């Protein structure tokens, strides 16, 4: 086992509200006041209509796995104990897609279109990281 430490996100000015929301166990996304669309990744204007008039709103955190890959190979020593792990593109009910980890289910059971819900994983240093777990209605 290595003594490597997992990297932590380094919020930008655009993404800081997203990470602040995560620390309160809320999934916040930018919402355009002009066209009413949500988007992700954070940016200075709406990716749908280019309006700079937006706010941050809490979303449901519910979605479906759009695509995924299972990592069996070690690319960073701090993730050795996590192997194998799932990296997925989750399409939220509100529309945007987020790149994330799928947790709480064996990797062999992960498939596209599986319903998931956001969960917040404590990185052990006080930072909550949004991840997704299978949610069977």
Please, could you describe this protein's structure?
The chain has 137 residues and is mostly beta strands. Helix content is 6%, strand content 38%. The chain is built from 1 helix and 8 strands; from the N terminus they run H-E-E-E-E-E-E-E-E. Strands 4-5-6-8-7 form a 5-stranded mixed barrel. Strand 5 (85-92) and strand 6 (97-103) form a beta hairpin. The radius of gyration is 16 Å and the shape is globular. The model has no long low-confidence stretch (mean pLDDT 94).
Number of helices: 1
- Please provide the ordered H/E string of secondary-structure elements: HEEEEEEEE
Low-confidence stretches: none
Return the structural class.
mainly beta
Could you give a quick summary of the protein structure above?
The chain is mostly beta strands and 137 residues long.
Features:
five-stranded mixed β-barrel, 137 residues, three-stranded antiparallel β-sheet, globular, mainly beta, 1 helix
List the topology elements.
Layout: H1 16-23, E1 28-32, E2 38-39, E3 54-58, E4 62-71, E5 85-92, E6 97-103, E7 115-122, E8 128-134
Parallel strand pairs: 6-8
Antiparallel strand pairs: 1-2, 1-3, 4-5, 4-7, 5-6, 7-8
């Amino acid at each position: 086992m290595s003594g490597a430490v997992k990297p932590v996100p380094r919020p930008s000015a655009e993404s800081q509200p997203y990470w602040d929301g995560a620390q309160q166990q809320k999934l916040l996304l930018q919402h355009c006041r002009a066209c009413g669309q949500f988007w992700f990744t954070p940016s200075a204007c709406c990716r749908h209509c280019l309006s700079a008039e937006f706010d941050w709103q809490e979303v449901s955190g519910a979605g479906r796995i759009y695509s995924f890959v299972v990592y069996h190979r070690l690319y960073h020593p701090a993730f050795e104990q996590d192997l194998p792990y799932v990296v997925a593109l989750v399409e939220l009910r509100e529309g945007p897609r987020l790149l994330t980890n799928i947790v709480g289910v064996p990797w062999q059971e992960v498939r596209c279109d599986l319903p998931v819900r956001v969960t917040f994983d404590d990185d052990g240093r006080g930072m909550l990281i949004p991840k997704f777990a299978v949610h069977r209605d």
